[in-house]
Write a sequence for this structure.
């Protein structure tokens, strides 16, 4: 962090249901290597000594959250999330209004990315410490990328040399992120990740090379892939 003035916070949107997982249990609460996916994701953030607090945005009727050990952790605060991911992130940011300064840093991390390494998060924070805006963890796309048209017909082959797949955590200045999200949502902009809100507001976030093992659990087979990754890491 920059000197002793900037603090580090985190927000985890966890109010979704994960419909593509074909399960009645929200994907963030599915068991992975013996504990909920969300517990793994939170543990990676809580392993950062500089982290002041992580705000978890959960659904209003969430019956799973109270049973997690992290729910009673002193550095964890739960708030009610919203209908869309961006609404939940904003709810988390607003919960920090009385605590965070505009130039503080906030990490936003997917509840369903349990395999991110704490050392990678720490490296990103260190690399972006002097950046005026912040940046995101991402990986360069290795596959040839096709643009599809009607009927799944190929319309074009895109230049992959400039394409990156966005991941989380995404790290931004607290004040900039809160303002950009509020304005984008008020304008009806589709905010698919935090960087897109900042881009819409005219800022230029930085890319930080992450790892392909930082997968997002989206479909059932991702659970087994995540288990293999954790096993390879000795967890």
């Amino acid at each position: 962090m920059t000197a002793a003035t900037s603090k580090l916070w985190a927000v985890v949107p966890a109010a979704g249901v994960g419909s593509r997982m074909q399960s009645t249990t929200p994907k963030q609460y599915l068991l992975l290597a013996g504990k909920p996916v969300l517990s793994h994701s939170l543990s990676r953030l809580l392993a950062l000594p500089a982290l002041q607090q992580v705000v978890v945005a959960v659904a209003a009727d969430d019956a799973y959250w109270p049973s997690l050990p992290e729910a009673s952790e002193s550095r964890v605060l739960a708030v009610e999330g919203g209908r869309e991911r961006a609404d939940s992130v904003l709810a988390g940011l607003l919960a920090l209004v009385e605590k965070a300064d505009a130039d503080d840093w906030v990490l936003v991390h997917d509840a369903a990315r349990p395999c991110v390494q704490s050392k990678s998060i720490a490296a990103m924070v260190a690399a972006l410490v002097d950046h005026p805006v912040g940046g995101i963890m991402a990986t360069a796309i290795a596959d040839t990328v096709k643009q599809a048209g009607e009927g799944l017909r190929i319309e074009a082959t895109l230049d992959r040399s400039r394409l990156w797949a966005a991941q989380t955590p995404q790290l931004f200045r607290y004040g900039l992120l809160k303002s950009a999200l509020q304005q984008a949502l008020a304008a009806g902009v589709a905010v698919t990740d935090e960087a897109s809100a900042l881009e819409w507001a005219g800022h230029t976030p930085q890319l930080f090379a992450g790892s392909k093992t930082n997968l997002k659990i989206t479909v059932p087979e991702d659970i087994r892939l995540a288990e293999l990754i954790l096993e390879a890491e000795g967890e």
The chain has a mean pLDDT of 94. The longest strand covers residues 164-173. The domain at 8-229 is CATH 3.90.550.10 (Spore Coat Polysaccharide Biosynthesis Protein SpsA; Chain A). Helices lie at 37-46, 85-94, 118-127, 174-186, 194-200, 221-232.
